[in-house]
Amino acid sequence: MSTSETPRFVRLRVEMMLEITDSDALSGTALESIAAEYGEPGGEAAEERVRAEEAVREDGAEALASLVDPFDLVSEVPGVELAQASWSSETVDYDPDDPDGWNLDEDEEGGDEDDETDDADEVDDDVPHNG
Fold this sequence. Notes:
Blueprint (H helix, E strand, L loop, with lengths): L22 H16 L7 H13 L1 H8 L2 H5 L9 E2 L35 E2 L9
């Protein structure tokens, strides 16, 4: 395949299972990140900041999603530019000792991934995550 025949756009799917071992450290880091992003409390984005802070305090999955940035994953890869990204995190039941592990081809609701609607959002530097 010549360079002119190479597809310009590639969807990269990454799925991870993470264990939260210190929820206070996680939420604290997420709160620090929010503070750095929004600056001093008050101002135009005060309501948005308050919602983001409440979310990361209440839910470890939200705290994690607020800290993960797909741009950071590919920003130093030569020859690529992130066009769109969508990501989320959720708390799930997981047994690391289950010999069947976790089936990447099956989603939780039993549907086929190919049937899911792709609602990827454009990358927006003003939004900490799409969780």
